[in-house]
Amino acid sequence: MKKIGFIGLGVMGAPMAANLLRKGYEVTVFNRTPGKADKLIELGAKEAATPAAVAKTSELIITMISNDDAIREVYYGNNGILSSLTPGTVIVDSSTISPSLVRELARDTSSKFGDFLDAPVTGSKPAAEGGTLVFMVGGNPDVVHKVSDILLAMGRKVIPMGPSGSGATAKLAHNTIVGINTAALVEGMAIAASGGIDAASFLELVQSGGASSKAAELKSQKLLERDFSVQFSLELMLKDLRLSSVLSDNLKTPTPVLETVKSLFQIADSMGLGALDLSAVAHCYEQWIDKRITNSAAHSTIAAALETPIDTTDAC
């Protein structure tokens, strides 16, 4: 498979498509917002006018879209993917969407004699740029094997999760942990700040002890520098926590910590922090304790970031 279609050129999608181009694949791209394809065209991509046009020329289609509604538009809307799908085409959706929608897409792709994999990723923007994403994949194992080389052109690992919907379920469970870990990190920092502990010393302790986590690894320096530019946006994390809440209800699985953290991110979103990195949840705690959780003199990027639109058109 050399002819690849890529739909969704946001924070994650654009660098993923760029990595495919650098590995020699022929890539046709589409984005709902004009202008996002310019840098990819410089790398050799072709731009299509509609998702249907992508489907007509591609052996494999990868979608990386922000939410369920946007996915429905791209697949089922006027000139959507499914209106022009060629038999034998493989679709890989790397968005973070509801497992029920994944199963619907798999069924409707199969009715067009195509194959569908739900293959969301973890790693956020730096991993997308570096080609070190991890794909968690739901669908036919033979199809997963068939496209694994292409996925590994964008990532470092492909983990089969089970039948259709399993990748989406795993991603929501995973991002529940990411949201909880980020909230826990910031809450611990608030306690330390209230007790007069130096933030840099406390974060060194966190990363050296039992509280160490990927959240601490990725967010410690950002918090110290008060850099809330997006690796993974707060509003997308809130979207994922809401999806996970619905899923856990459907599965009759109690999730008291999830519900608490979802409420925290809802408060942060209502404060206008949604377009910033999810670590911006720190501003909630700073308002509550009436002081910074870091003692850095660096100027916060929050004011500038709130004034500047940030692209959050796809998930991590």
UniProtKB/TrEMBL annotation:
Give a GO molecular function annotation for the protein: oxidoreductase activity
Top-level taxon in the UniProt lineage? Bacteria
The protein in question is named NAD(P)-dependent oxidoreductase
Name the Gene3D superfamilies on file.
Answer: N-(1-d-carboxylethyl)-l-norvaline Dehydrogenase, domain 2 (1.10.1040.10), NAD(P)-binding Rossmann-like Domain (3.40.50.720)
- Look at the named UniProt entry and state the broad enzyme category this protein falls under: oxidoreductase
Domain (6-phosphogluconate dehydrogenase NADP-binding): residue spans on this chain? 3-162
> Taxonomy-wise, where does this protein's organism fall, top ranks first?
Bacteria, Bacillati, Bacillota, Bacilli, Bacillales
InterPro entries the UniProt entry points to: 3-OH-isobutyrate_DH-rel_CS (IPR002204), 6-PGluconate_DH-like_C_sf (IPR008927), 6PGD_dom2 (IPR013328), 6PGDH_NADP-bd (IPR006115), HIBADH-like_NADP-bd (IPR029154), HIBADH-related (IPR015815), NAD(P)-bd_dom_sf (IPR036291)
PROSITE patterns, alphabetically? 3_HYDROXYISOBUT_DH
**UniProt cross-references to SUPFAM superfamilies, sorted A to Z:** 6-phosphogluconate dehydrogenase C-terminal domain-like, NAD(P)-binding Rossmann-fold domains
**Keyword line:** NAD, Oxidoreductase
Q: What is its EC number?
A: 1.1.-.-
**Start and end of every 3-hydroxyisobutyrate dehydrogenase-like NAD-binding domain?**
165-284
Q: Does the keyword Amino-acid biosynthesis apply?
A: no
